[in-house]
Specification:
By secondary structure, this protein is α/β, with parallel strands linked by helices. It is about 35% helix and about 15% strand. It has three domains: about 5-320, Rossmann fold (3-Layer(aba) Sandwich); about 340-500, Bifunctional carbon monoxide dehydrogenase/acetyl-coa synthase(codh/acs), Chain M, domain 3 (2-Layer Sandwich); about 510-735, Bifunctional carbon monoxide dehydrogenase/acetyl-coa synthase(codh/acs), Chain M, domain 5 (3-Layer(aba) Sandwich). It is globular. Bound molecules: iron/sulfur cluster and zinc ion (ZN).
């Protein structure tokens, strides 16, 4: 490392450790040693300290230990003229800096000074666990390659906006912190009317450099939560991040000692830094995969104007980190990229919506003969987006006809399911649901920029050809807003959906000799493998057996592989030799048995993106199910996120299991333990969402009123309340065989 940078980093570390020591001493007297210290909504304490050392900071006095550690990591500040051949001193100083920064933020929380409020704007502070996991899924399946920590302020507001948009179109989450010359990129974005927050994939941490530590806390928690790394195993955490989390820092404006010190902390994780000013380049030495520090003085970047320079700067960041971005160039007037997935269009910004409550909108993909499809043809029938009043709720039919020599009817739903990702990737377009419960909301800015119905067609054609070129040769799209026509067509579509349902509903585990695997989540949870049988969807809810089979045919080397059942071991628990063998070979030999119908004996593992978690309540002789959307407390004494930290990461935990929500309606749902009659508590939103299906399941189980005997979070959040509720309702689980 250049001696200049190493000297600055070590000097910066000394400064921030002293600041932390001073704050700690003050806090001991003003707040007292027992005053609680915690970041909001996390079970990982102060996450960098916890993940590096295993030390749980819960009150002021707990800060003493990491503070000592930080101090002990500090080398003397080297002479400016001394040649430093090794990174060691600076890297240790970097770790000390992160500890000190977390200690400072911890004390600020204890004092009620965090998250920061500045000029009337409330910063986000650290990312909470729920959000961390939600983004984890997108990182797992490759939609979102990583994150960019943008530190400082850009040359102009225009450049700031361009940089953020470019990062988003490359699928990067954008974290914002620090200042340069008294300006912060957060100010620049706010002045330019850019919405910041989780919804838009931009997280303003704080206006000082210290808040940058929240980015490393996020990376550390991801390693523990998805990589099955134990707290304290800092080597594995750093390795995990180096190889699996594609993050980097983009430093805008002049550097100072603290920025260098924090940067040295990030280099420990293998995260390189790109600076838009003149700084010494630090070339690869093995800690990061690529360069550690790259200088790209903004005004020297070749380009016609600043916007083009901004684009190249981001391009360079992506190269330095070795990120492969696979987004299609789509010819539409708004930005397009995975970062816009999950973007929310709020009522104030709504220009028009299709479907949703009381509305009518559906999407249908149909296979046609080659000569019945005119490739690239996009037809719009009825009025266009800009011709309706503001915030109108309008019916819409999206009909996509595809043809291809290798296309099959079974692939239709697999391709149709992709519409959600495809359309959501457009800036200002929010897409939810599928089939005839599709709901699309369009931001007024998108329509102002010229986005129209035909652009749905552009997106769908380009992305289908791009991602499924091996089976799709031609695509044509028809978009209809004319109400009478939509009304007629939606009935035809429903008949087709129904046929598809019947096909999977009619399929049983016994009727097939092959199940399918899904290994998509191994990029984040290396020992996790899903086995998907006809009567059980994948735990993320996104893949059923037919989809996996189709996906295998589309891409035989892909993530869905056939799992021959082999000899039956136990019919009640759903255990087969072939499944066990497959699981052993594909879990890095971590798991040697899987039962498909039991939660108590070798249940399936959980990666991190399950729709629900089920857990035993021994006192009630049954199980409870909490859904991912339920943030409340449950009778197990844990909320969803806490349970996830026990169940996730590819571990096998008898009595605890992640699963897809529709699995609850399956005949095979924990049939070894007695099925639905064992469920004593369920998140309210699940009960409501699946009401019709669940009623049918309860009736089939011989207890039509069972659903009312199952408690939920609106009345029951503790075991005592639960037991009283079950007694009063006469829940069948109380009289069943002991579950343990
Ligand atoms: Fe991940 Fe399993 Fe869903 Fe595949 S089926 S994406 S492995 S959770
Ligand atoms: Zn997963």
């Amino acid at each position: 490392m250049s001696r200049f940078i190493a000297t600055s980093a070590i000097r910066g570390a000394h400064g921030v450790v002293e600041q932390a020591e001073k704050l700690y001493k003050e806090a001991l007297t003003t707040l007292g040693p027992d005053k609680p210290v915690a970041f909001p909504n996390t079970t990982y304490f102060l996450p960098v300290i916890y993940t590096f050392t295993g030390h749980k900071v819960q009150k002021i006095a707990d800060l003493e230990k990491p503070l000592h550690l930080a101090r002990s990591l500090l080398a003397p500040i080297p002479d400016e003229h001394l040649w430093l051949p090794y990174l060691g001193g600076a890297l240790d100083a970097g770790a000390a800096t992160l500890f000190a920064e977390e200690i400072i933020e911890g004390i600020r929380f204890a004092k009620g000074e965090q998250p920061e409020v500045r000029n009337g704007f409330k910063y986000n502070g650290p990312i909470d666990d729920v959000q961390m996991r939600a983004w984890g899924i997108q990182m797992v399946d490759g939609r979102m390659p990583g994150f960019a920590a943008v530190v400082g302020a850009a040359k102009s507001n225009e450049v700031a906006v361009k940089i953020v948009r470019e990062l988003q179109s490359k699928g990067q989450l954008v974290f914002l912190s620090s200042m340069s010359n008294g300006r912060s990129i957060v100010d620049q974005l706010l002045e330019s009317g850019v919405d910041l927050g989780y919804d838009t994939f931009t997280v303003p941490f704080g206006s000082d450099t210290i808040s940058t530590v929240y980015a490393l806390g996020y990376a550390s928690r991801a390693a523990i939560s998805f990589g099955n790394v134990a707290p304290g195993d800092f080597r594995k955490i750093l390795l995990y991040n180096k190889f699996r989390c594609f993050a980097f820092a983009l430093a805008l404006g002049p550097m100072d000692d603290l920025k260098w010190a924090t940067g040295a902390g990030a280099i420990n994780y293998g995260f390189p830094a790109v600076c838009d000013t003149i700084v010494p380049n630090v070339l690869p030495t093995g800690v990061t995969k690529y360069e550690h520090v790259v200088s790209m003085p903004f005004d020297d970047i070749p380009g016609r104007d600043d916007l083009e320079r901004a684009e190249r700067l981001v391009q360079r960041c992506i190269e330095v980190r070795g990120i492969k971005v696979k987004t299609a160039k789509v010819n539409i007037p708004v930005a397009f990229g995975p970062a816009f997935e999950g973007e929310v269009v709020r009522r104030d910004n709504l220009r028009i919506e299709f479907g949703g409550k009381g509305g009518m909108c559906f999407e249908l993909l149909r296979m046609k003969d080659l000569d019945a499809v005119e490739d690239g043809k996009i037809t719009v029938i009825g009025k266009d987006m800009d011709e309706f009043p503001v915030a109108a709720k309008v019916p819409l039919a999206i009909l996509v006809d595809v043809a291809g020599r290798k296309m099959q009817k079974d692939f239709e739903p697999v391709l149709e399911r992709q519409f959600h990702h495809f359309l959501n990737n457009a800036e200002g377009i929010q897409h939810q649901g599928q089939r005839d419960i599709t709901w699309i909301r369009i931001h007024k800015n998108a329509v102002d920029k010229g986005f129209r119905l035909k652009h749905f067609g552009e997106i769908l054609r380009t992305t289908l050809m791009n991602d499924f070129g091996s089976i799709v040769d031609k695509v044509q799209v028809i978009l209809i807003t004319e109400p009478e026509q939509v009304k007629k067509l939606i009935e035809e579509a429903r008949a087709i959906y129904n046929e598809r349902n019947i096909r999977i509903a009619g399929l049983t585990d016994d009727a097939v000799d092959t199940f399918y695997s899904c290994s998509l989540c191994q990029s984040f949870a290396p020992n996790h493998i899903c086995v998907i049988n006809p009567e059980r969807v994948g735990l993320c809810g996104a893949y059923n057996w037919l989809d996996c089979r189709a996906s295998y045919e589309i891409k035989p080397s892909g993530p869905n592989q056939p799992v021959p059942k082999g000899a039956l071991v136990d019919a009640t628990k759903g255990e087969w030799e072939g499944v066990n063998k497959f699981v052993y070979e594909h879990s890095n030999m971590a798991i040697n048995r899987f039962t498909l119908y039991s939660i108590m004996d070798s249940p399936m593992t959980t990666c991190g993106c399950c729709e629900c978690i089920m857990v035993i309540i021994p006192e009630a002789n049954g199980f409870m199910i909490v859904s991912r959307d339920d943030y409340g407390m449950t009778p197990s004494g844990m909320a969803f996120t806490t349970m996830m930290s026990t169940a996730g990461g590819g571990m096998q935990t008898p009595g605890m299991m992640g699963h897809g929500k529709y699995f609850i309606t399956s005949k095979r749902f924990i049939s070894a333990e007695g099925g639905i009659k064992r469920i004593v508590w369920m998140s309210k939103n699940l009960k409501e969402e699946l009401a019709d299906e669940l009623k049918e399941v309860c009736t089939n189980a011989g207890d039509p009123d069972l659903l009312d005997k199952i408690a939920d979070g609106s009345t029951v959040t503790t075991v005592d309340q639960l037991l009283a509720f079950l007694q009063e309702k006469g829940h069948p689980a109380l009289a069943m065989d002991p579950v343990m």
